[in-house]
Amino acid sequence: MANTFIAVEGPQDVELIAAVLKPRGFKKKVHEDDLPERFGKRLIRKDYPIDGDLHARVPNPMFMTDGSNWVAIQSAGGATLELITLVSRVLNALKSFPGALDAIGIVRDTDELSAPEQFAHLRTELSSRLNREPEEFANYELQLPMSVNENIIDGKPNFGIYMLPDNEHEGTLENLVLECGECIYPQLVNRSRDFVDDVRELAELNSKDKSQVKKPFGKEKAIIAAAVSILKPGMSLAVSLDQNRWFSEESLNLPSMKKLIQFLRNLCQLES
Asked: Is a pLDDT exceeding 80 seen at residue 218?
C-alpha cells in the first residue's frame, strides 16, 4: 500500500495521469468521506476565496485508488514556480504525518528545452527552495533525482520527475496526445491538421489573432483543439481526454506512453 502525490501543470495533465492509471484498476473518488484521513483529507483546501480571487476555483487534487494504493493528482496552474509551490504546500500539509506520503512526483512539459536541460532547471529551482526554506521540509528525508535518466530517487518520501512528451525530446502534452490521436483517430487528426494548415494564413487574421498558433507547439495544440471540437464540441481537452478514446489499448502501447506508464508504475510502487 502506497500514497503518492503527483503535481502537474494543467487539468489536461491530470486526465493524462488518470488515463494511465485506469487500466490498472484505479478509480476516481470524489467524496471527502471516502478519502484516507492522514493523506487525502489533509490535502483538501477549504479556504475561500483563494488569494482573494472570488472567481478562482478551490484547487483540490483528483484522488484515485485501486483499493489499496492512493494517488492524488493536482494541477499547479503553471510551470516551474507553480509546481514547486504546490509540492511545498503538500509537504507542509502532511508534515505532521510525514509517513503518510510514500512518494511525490512532478510531471511537466519539456517545452522548448531538451529534457535534460528542463530537468536540470527544475532540479536547480527545487534545490534552491529546499535550501531557502528548510523548515518546510524538516520532517522529511528528501533527496532529489539526479538526472532525466535517473528520475526517481529513494527517500522519505521517494521523489520522481518526468518530462513530457517522452522524457527525451522537447515538446508538450499535446505532442503526446497527438501521437496517440494518430494511432486511434488517424483520419480525424489528418483532417484537423489540414484545417489548421489551411486557416492559419487567412488574410483576415492579424498578427494578434495568430499569435498563439504561431508560438512553439502552437500548431500541435490547434490540431488537438480542432479534433476535440468534433469529439466534444464546446468542451475542453481535459474533458475529451477523460471521455474519448485517446488512451486506448493500442495507444497505451506506443513507446512514448510505455515510458510514462513505467515511470508512474515505479513512482507509485505498483506491481508490474
From this structure: yes
Measured CA to CA in angstroms, residue 147 lies from 121, 168, 195 at distances of 11, 12, 40
pTM across the whole model: 0.96
- For 140-185, the pLDDT digits (tens) are 999 999 999 999 999 999 999 999 999 999 999 999 999 999 999 9
